[in-house]
Amino acid sequence: MKGFQITFFTQQDRKHKGQSLAEWLLAFAHRHGVQEAVLAADGEGYDDKGRFHSAHFFELADQPVEVRVAVDEETAERLFAALAQEDVAVFYVKTPVEFGLIGRAAC
C-alpha cells in the first residue's frame, strides 16, 4: 500500500489536555483511524527552535520522544485536519512510503 510515515517529535515533559503530549498523540491518532503507530523514546536531540534535549540519568522529563504512524493518504488528510482543530503545536516529518504486511501469516 502507498501512503505516508508521519513522525511527530516532542519531549517527555510536554503536556496536552492533562497528559503526556506523546501519549495524547498516540491515542488521538488511533481515534482518527490510524491502525499502526509506535511511541519511541530517544536519547537526545534538538527541537524545532534549536534547543538541545536529552535523557539524563536522574531526570527523563527532557527526553526526546517520537510518535510514528504509517497511514494511507486519506487517513493522513483526516489526521492533519483533526490536529489543525486542536490547541497544540507539534513538529512533524511526513515521508511517502510503501507499507503492508509480509509473511505467510499475513495472507
Automatic annotation (TrEMBL):
Gene3D superfamilies documented for this protein: 3.30.70.120
InterPro entries with a match to the protein in the record: N-reg_PII-like_a/b, N-reg_PII/ATP_PRibTrfase_C, UPF0166
Matching SUPFAM superfamilies: GlnB-like (SSF54913)
Family of the protein in this entry: Belongs to the UPF0166 family.
The name this protein goes by in its record: DUF190 domain-containing protein
